[in-house]
Structure prediction request, 179 residues.
Amino acid sequence: MDRVAKEQLVASLHETFTETAVVVVTQYSGLSVGEMTDLRAQMREAGANVKVTKNRLTKRALSGTRYAGLDEMFVGPTAMAYSSDPVAAAKVTVGFAKTHPKLIVIGGSLGEKVLDAEGVKALAALPSLDELRAKLVGLVATPATRLAVVLQAPAGQIARVLSAYAEQGQGEAGEQPAA
Prediction:
């Protein structure tokens, strides 16, 4: 890789770090190409990415970003997962590591907060933004549905009472001419 390509890679990584909500650092030594491809596919489905880069270039890209505290984690064969959803990258990485013990979660960062491996696992246990949105919509929709049922019930009862009176009045009115 020539100097210009390295500078472009560092600039691209720096931009990625400024736009990302979470970064998870892993060691991937021993994973096959097929397993890495599977990990990348799972990341894409969740709206996250995984990237293998040179540690020295990654450390340069980290400087001046809120993820600068991660530079000590980039030692050996490392890969980083990142996403704009604060939970997606951690959730996929931890889930993949459970079934593929050769992928080791070293740590990560949620904004300026540096996390160890246990912190990343705790982050992965949280619901994603999409799951939280679904729960919120469910909570908001449930009271509205109940309110509509409650508001419709009295109107229905009034209509039934009026209907009953109307039927009684017609029955009595029908009897009067016969008398």
